[in-house]
Design brief:
The complex is a heterodimer of chains A (852) and B (241). By secondary structure, chain A is α/β, with parallel strands linked by helices. Chain A contains 34 helices and 28 strands. In chain A, strands 1-10-2-7-6-3-5-4 form an 8-stranded parallel sheet. In chain A, strands 11-16-15-12-14-13 form a 6-stranded parallel sheet, with helices on both faces. In chain A, helix 16 crosses helix 22 and helix 17 runs parallel beside helix 28. The longest helix of chain A has 22 residues. Chain B has 241 residues and is an alpha/beta fold. In chain B, strands 8, 9, 10, 11, 12, 13, 14, 15 and 16 form a 9-stranded mixed sheet that branches. Chain B has a 7-stranded mixed sheet with strand order 1-2-3-4-5-6-7, with no helix packed on it. In chain B, helix 2 packs parallel to helix 3. Chain B is globular, with a radius of gyration of 18 Å. Classes of the chains: A alpha/beta (852), B alpha/beta (241). Chains A and B meet through helix 20, helix 24, strand 26, helix 27 and helix 30 of A and helix 1, helix 2, strand 11, strand 12 and strand 16 of B.
């Protein structure tokens, strides 16, 4: 709280002191019949006065132009240069390289039309090496780039001159960057830029967020855990409220699943009634499924395309170009099209499946209709009954303008490790000064000197308690007491490793070309590449399995080096790509709204009849919990006894809870056999009658859900958890402990790698407090295992557990029960499956003997 | 105290085999990745790859330096439990020959301790062709025990029974939507390829072509390493990577 109070940011209604723009800008605006908007002038005032500013504006509000106006006006007013500038004037940072390119294009026009003597260029991973080298020596006035490129530029000695006269940094889509590892890296880079050019002004551009103050704090330097100066928040007048409806269908509402297949006719009609629809889904596999189904339904042969992060880049570019050219009627996409690029005249956004979060939904809806004076139009398509409630909750949240963007959190230590090495690559650094610079960055303001020194030691020698790597140190101390890189090859390695985006290891999906014919045909790898898919997904496939990818049903034939070789299959019931890719958790905020909706009978009338009937039957047969209770139902079914609870905390937190509860139920002799989770509920089944155990006091529910669950049980589970290992791998790569795999080096790379899983096991066993394990745990706790949320949940339900012992399955339990069997078994039960396999053989062998 | 995983099998399940036969000898694979030959009171391990972490550190990857003690402490636990008269390491015991002379004092002490009161043999591998005297034990190229040849790399002709290391076998099976990949003992009753024991040692799928000439495939069994037991799986159930 202290930090926030000291950070006296004024959120003022826009009241610009200036009424107009200087020439030639005023004339240029007038020539188009435009008036500068109030927020554009207010931002100009603030920045001209040398103050940092956060502009919050809806899409279509002229946000980007507002961000650039101060720089353009300043550059236009400068006397003609006698020699080319050696320093960049304005740095624009975007989370997407496509966005940087797009903005550069949009900016070139006004600059040319006003005849301004301003050079502007982009720099992304796609920029040719020669131009990047030239840009370091002869930079443009305005450079549009990404956080990774800034880190790269800062790792060269030339950074001092390149950024020495930097006046302005514009951070676009800041809401999408700030609370992520990329945001941490960006914050550290901003701190370094301020060291190089203390006078620079930072401008953040953002969509509406839940906590504007936190985002504004990102822009200003900190000292002693408080902002050292003010950042002004400029809020643009809102656009017209979006026109959102929930799709109505006469078909049976599914109980579970995510395909929304039942609503295909209505979705298809909606596409036909609009010029261009964007259809957002939450995962790549859903995108594949929906696209596949739509085309089966597409009698009119409407141009409907698919866009997601795993598709081949060339394929994606084609779809984007077709969108801009207005040649498509619908695009099925994932979050790859979430961010601010203008993809032509979208007049309808269809959100298929759960909205997951209020802010996420409003940003997606903002993709439709970029004109401020008309409402964006959106159609929500729930894929199952629980999602109907979630859609209704999101719709109400949107009407209120409620937001649920994630809160800020301490900066990640693996990112800091990468940054420290980068700083050493630029030039030897003094650790005191670097520490002061690091804690001036908002996410790292709370970092202690001890914590910093640990990370520094990690970069230098691995930071292990057993210090026998001194002679292999990466950082060496100079005579002056500064730190320098031990070898130039380390700088090369750093530059290959820069950035915080660690893709899951990917395999190319390549069509096999068949040689010969008939049964004797041999396969030749050499066909077309369809895209990439996560290695762990392919690892789950046996040759012969089918899956949907790039809109086709494919048969997995086998691996050849880094290629998954596939053939076209004609299966009608393909095994779909794993659910995981691009999965978002249900936001706490929406979950809370859904719980309240469930608890208030009066609110059920807003829901479709099928849903309110379902809830009424639940109320008659079992219990509908009140908003602050957690319901547990126990009942027998088949040879098993079931235990279903409804935390509403999202699938990841439920899976963690399932792992921990089965351990406890095992100890309580309930003989649990397995569990399954969805976004709303968790079902565990076992051999013993848990209703009776609870009745007879042999199973104490309050004890079962006690917060001490997050102690020893958690520890024991984490020792083996694959999810922790995945988090660890990411941290190990970002921090530079192990190297990224780069395309083409896999073959030689294999000999030079040690599996990060093995490293995790050894480190955890011998130095459980190592900072890399801390970093991995911090990641997993907010990500894959969502412990933060689990902890809050256990606190929330303390003393508020409601148990209902039933004779059979309840209506509310059906959705999660239907996930059983559809879900793959959690990977941590490997031993049980091994035993099963071995024993089946025994049975088979015994049978054979008996038959003889 | 680490609690066991919920066991998904009913308690009435038939008892698993715990031994396999090779050329008339009974051999017991242990869950930790070592093989116990009771008739000879001998414990066999393969591919310890000690000091692999240090070898990587020299190349600029500062991996946790605890792999050697991790490997030795697992080996120590088995030795304490079995108390064999003889221990044979089937080669690639050290990731690099030169590393063997640079063991941290603690690690050298625990290695010396393990050797006390028993015979210790180091069979040379391709990673450690020259082992120094400082590590104790007897260094040799191959050994023969009751007609079974012990060596690092499989021989070209499979005339006699042999136990080897070198290939780091792992087996992979698919079951109920899950795929499991584990280190394994691969044997056809005439030849046995031991799993790698080292903490940082990787693995190679038994169906990889490197294993192709080694087995009579209809007799192949992969004894896959579980947490508490080793599970025999028929060769026909294995799937490639």
């Amino acid at each position: 709280m202290g930090a926030r109070r000291k950070l006296a940011i004024e959120e003022q209604d826009v009241a610009p002191s200036r009424a107009s723009l200087p020439e030639p800008f005023a004339g240029w605006f007038a020539g188009r019949g435009w008036h500068p908007r109030a927020h554009q002038l207010a931002l100009l005032d603030t920045v001209t006065a040398g103050r940092d500013a956060l502009l919050i504006a809806p899409t279509g509000g002229g946000k980007t132009l507002a961000g650039f106006l101060p720089s353009l006006i300043d550059l236009a007013a400068q006397p003609p240069k006698r020699s080319p500038a050696r320093s960049i004037h304005t740095l624009y940072v975007s989370p997407l390289k496509a966005l940087a390119t797009d903005i550069a294009r949009n900016l070139t026009a006004p600059v040319a039309e006003m005849g301004l003597p301003i050079q502007l260029e982009t720099r992304t991973g796609d920029t040719p090496q020669s131009r990047r080298a030239r840009q370091r020596v002869l930079p443009p006035d305005i450079l549009l780039t990404t956080p990774e490129q800034i880190a790269l530029m800062l790792s060269h000695k030339s950074a001092e001159e390149l950024f020495g006269q930097l006046k302005c940094v514009i951070l676009d889509e800041l809401h999408a960057l700030a609370t992520s590892k990329r945001g941490d890296l960006l914050a550290l880079d901003l701190a370094r830029l301020r060291t190089l050019s203390p006078e620079l002004t930072a401008i953040g551009l953002s969509a509406t967020v839940a906590r504007p103050f936190e985002l504004a704090a990102f822009l200003v330097p900190h000292k002693g855990q408080a902002a050292t100066r003010l950042a002004e928040i400029v809020t643009a007048e809102g656009g017209i409220k979006a026109d959102i409806t929930i799709l109505k269908s006469n078909a049976d509402l599914p109980w579970a699943g995510h395909s929304a297949r039942y609503a295909l006719p209505e979705m298809y009609e909606a596409i036909k009634a609009h010029n261009m629809s964007l259809m957002f889904v939450n995962t790549r596999s859903q995108a594949e499924m929906l696209f596949h189904e739509l085309w089966r339904y597409n009698d009119d042969n409407l141009p409907i395309a698919l866009h997601h992060g795993s598709l081949d880049v060339g394929q994606r570019r084609k779809v984007e170009a077709a969108m801009v050219a207005g040649k498509l009627r619908a695009v099925v996409c994932t979050s790859t099209l979430d961010l601010g690029i203008d993809w032509g005249d979208v007049d309808l956004v269809i959100n298929v499946g759960a909205p997951k979060g209020a802010s996420r939904l409003s940003q997606r809806i903002g993709r439709a209709n970029h004109r401020l004076d008309e409402p964006s139009k959106a159609l929500l398509v729930p894929a199952n009954r629980f999602e109907v409630m979630e859609c209704q909750a999101a719709l109400e949240a949107a009407a209120e303008g409620a937001q649920d963007t994630p809160p800020s959190r301490p900066g990640a230590l693996d990112v800091l490790a990468q940054h420290i090495l980068g700083m050493a690559c630029a030039e030897p650094f003094d650790s005191d000064r670097l520490y002061r610079e690091v804690v001036s960055a908002a996410p790292y303001q709370g970092l202690t000197r001890e914590g910093f020194d640990q990370v520094l030691a990690f970069v230098a020698t691995g930071g292990y308690a057993l210090s026998n790597y001194e002679r292999y140190a990466k950082l060496k101390k100079t005579k002056e007491g500064t730190h320098r890189v031990a070898h130039p090859r380390l700088a090369q390695a750093y530059r290959l490793n820069v950035g915080t985006i660690v893709e899951a290891p990917m395999l190319r999906v390549r069509l096999a070309r068949l040689k010969g014919s008939g049964k004797t045909s041999g396969m030749v790898a050499g066909g077309r590449v369809l895209g990439e898919v996560e290695e762990y997904f392919i690892e789950q496939l046996a040759p012969g399995d089918t899956f949907v990818f790039a809109g086709e049903v494919l048969r997995f034939e086998g691996l050849r080096e880094m290629d998954a070789i596939v053939t076209r299959a004609h299966a009608t019931d393909p095994k779909v790509p794993a659910y995981e890719g691009g999965k978002f958790p249900l936001s706490t905020y929406l979950a809370d709204r859904v719980r309240h909706m469930l608890a208030q009978r009066g609110a059920w009338s807003k829901l479709p009849e099928q849903v309110s009937d379902w809830l009424r039957i639940q109320a008659d047969f079992s219990v509908v919990p009140s908003a602050d209770e957690m319901l547990i139902e126990t009942f027998p079914r088949g040879q098993r006894h079931y235990f279903v609870c409804y935390p509403f905390e999202g699938r990841l937190a439920h899976q963690s809870l399932g792992m921990l509860l089965t351990r406890r139920l095992e100890r309580a002799h309930a003989a649990p056999l397995g569990f399954v989770a969805n976004e709303y509920a968790l079902a565990i089944w076992g051999l013993n009658d848990m209703s009776a155990m609870i009745r007879e006091g042999r199973l104490e529910l309050a004890q079962l859900f006690d917060e001490d669950m997050l102690g020893d049980d958690l520890d024991a589970w984490l020792a083996e958890s694959n999810l922790m290992k995945r988090s660890f791998r990411v941290c190990a790569i970002i921090s530079g402990l192990i190297e990224r795999r780069h395309p083409g080096q896999e073959k030689t790379g294999r000999q030079m790698t040690v599996s990060s899983d093995l490293i995790y096991d050894v480190l955890r066993q011998h130095e459980p407090d190592h900072i890399l394990l801390k970093a991995a745990f911090a990641d997993a706790a907010t990500g894959l295992i969502d412990l933060g949320r689990l902890g809050q949940f256990l606190k929330r339900i303390g003393g508020r557990i409601r148990h209902s012992a039933l004779s059979h399955v309840s209506p509310l339990a059906v959705p999660v029960m239907l996930e059983i069997g559809r879900e793959s078994v959690p990977s941590d039960v490997g031993d049980a499956l091994l035993r099963e396999t071995a024993e089946e053989l025994i049975a088979e062998a015994m049978g054979e003997h008996a038959a003889r | 105290m680490l609690h066991a995983k919920p066991d998904l099998m009913p308690e009435t399940a038939p008892t698993l085999r715990t031994h396999f036969e090779m050329a008339g000898h009974t051999l017991e694979p242990l869950a930790a990745g070592a093989l116990y030959w009771q008739a000879e009171d001998t414990l066999l391990v393969a591919d310890l790859h000690l000091e692999k972490g240090a070898a990587f550190a020299a190349l600029g990857m500062l991996l946790p330096p605890y792999d050697t003690r991790s490997t030795l402490s697992r080996l120590g636990k088995i030795i304490a439990a079995v108390d064999p008269a003889r221990v044979i390491a089937l080669g690639d015991s050290f990731h690099r020959s030169e590393c063997a002379d640079h063991l941290v004092a603690d690690d050298l002490a625990s290695l010396t301790d393990l050797q006390k009161g028993r015979d210790w043999y180091w069979i040379c591998g391709n990673h450690d062709p020259h082992l120094p005297g400082s590590i104790g034990g007897t260094v040799c190229a191959t050994l023969t025990l009751s007609g079974v040849t012990l060596r690092h790399e499989p021989s070209d002709d499979a005339s006699g029974p042999e136990i080897v290391g070198h290939l780091h076998p792992v087996a992979r099976i698919a079951r109920r939507g899950a795929v499991i990949r584990r280190r394994c003992f691969a044997t056809d009753g005439n030849r046995l390829v031991m799993p790698a024991f080292g903490a940082y040692a990787g693995g190679l799928n038994v169906l990889h072509e490197a294993f192709q000439p080694l087995f009579r495939w209809h007799r192949l069994e992969a004894w896959m390493m579980g947490r508490h037991a080793v599970y025999p799986v028929l060769g026909s159930l294995l799937i490639p990577d």
